[in-house]
Inverse folding.
């Protein structure tokens, strides 16, 4: 049995390269960018008016002039016009190109306009005020978005404005999620007294969708020949297999021996943690195999604690470890890393955790009452209020 740290190190050394694909930019939210996005022209590409009002030649105001005859209108999207008389002004709209031979914009709120004359009602006007200067946000050729950035709505706007109708991103892994067990029935079925409905597989589907990975699912009964036949096929067809159940010591927990018979290299089986100790991890030349224990909390925490970091490193995404303060003292005697379910609260600018007592790793409903797991090291027994530990948030 290895430590949590050893298990994570092993997993992070076996990341995969899923390749690159080019997709429509509007479909790229949540994906990992695999090219630099550069400015195809200055940003903004012209001196841009940033307030509705009038544009004047600042030198006229500086000389004491306050009344300006309106000479024309510069609308947004229209070709640049020129101020013909430096003692006049041009009405301008937000987003318009600044008229030639003007150098300051005064907003309508600071004006009185009557009979075609605009009177400035404020004492202070600055040269270049209310003008978004050409190239202020970026010059032609500047890198606007770095490679390996996770694309959000903010990046979508930039992609659109530089004309990137398609964008190169990391391909997502092809994932099969497998549940096992004769006690499991479909969601739409009414279980008998000795049965329960399948839930772990759908939890995993949702956890993967959270990071924009589509997956397929299968449920296989506890029949070794059938299990072996299907798994052999899946090892060839998928980049990742996620299993829920059949990796412990039960009589029908066939997966570890099936993996061995099919040539899956076992990298570890059992981690010194609670919940989720019987976790199996292995690989073939083209497929990584995560065998999560069948209890719901075990499956949930192992996916977050191990699959997420493995995926993030595989696609080149850097992640930060989050920490939080323990809101009350607790004790935990087993020599195991403890992933404790907690509620999160923000107090005086700090994230504080409060443990929620569940009924063990089979208590699926307890997840609804909590926000995160706090990771407590196995070297300690007593954990004091105010101590800081890593957390894994799922809300």
């Amino acid at each position: 049995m290895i430590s949590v740290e050893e298990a994570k190190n092993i997993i992070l050394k076996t990341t995969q390269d899923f390749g690159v694909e080019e997709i429509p930019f509007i479909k790229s939210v949540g994906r990992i960018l695999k090219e630099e996005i550069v400015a195809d022209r200055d940003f903004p590409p012209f001196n841009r008016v940033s307030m509705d009002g009038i544009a004047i030649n600042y030198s006229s105001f500086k000389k004491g002039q306050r009344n300006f005859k309106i000479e024309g209108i510069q609308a947004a999207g229209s070709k640049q016009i020129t101020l013909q008389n430096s003692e006049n002004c041009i009405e301008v709209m937000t987003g318009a190109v600044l008229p030639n031979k003007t150098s300051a914009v005064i907003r309508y709120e600071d004006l009185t306009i009557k009979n075609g004359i605009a009177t400035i009602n404020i004492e202070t006007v600055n040269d270049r005020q209310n003008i978004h200067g050409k190239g202020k946000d970026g010059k032609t050729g500047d890198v606007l978005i770095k490679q390996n950035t996770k694309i959000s709505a903010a990046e979508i706007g930039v992609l659109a404005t530089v004309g990137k109708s398609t964008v190169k991103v990391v391909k997502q892994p092809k994932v099969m999620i497998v549940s096992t067990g004769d006690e499991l029935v479909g969601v739409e079925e009414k279980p008998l007294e000795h049965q329960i409905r399948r839930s772990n597989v759908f939890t995993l589907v949702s956890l993967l969708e959270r990071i924009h990975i589509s997956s397929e699912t299968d449920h296989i009964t506890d029949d070794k020949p059938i299990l072996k036949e299907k798994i052999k096929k899946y090892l060839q067809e998928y980049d990742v297999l996620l299993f829920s159940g059949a990796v412990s010591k039960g009589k029908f927990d066939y997966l570890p021996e099936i993996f061995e018979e099919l040539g899956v290299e076992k990298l570890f089986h059992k981690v010194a943690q609670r919940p989720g100790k019987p976790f199996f991890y292995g690989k073939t030349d083209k497929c990584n195999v995560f065998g999560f224990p069948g209890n719901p909390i075990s499956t949930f925490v192992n996916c977050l604690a191990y699959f997420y970091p493995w995926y993030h490193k595989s696609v080149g995404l850097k992640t930060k470890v989050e920490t939080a303060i323990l809101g009350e003292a607790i004790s935990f005697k087993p020599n195991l890393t403890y992933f404790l379910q907690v509620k999160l609260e923000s107090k005086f600018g700090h994230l504080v955790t409060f443990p929620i007592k569940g009924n063990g790793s089979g208590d699926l409903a307890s997840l609804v009452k909590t926000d995160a797991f706090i990771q407590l090291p196995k070297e300690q027994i007593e954990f004091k209020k105010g101590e800081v530990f890593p957390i894994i948030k799922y809300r």
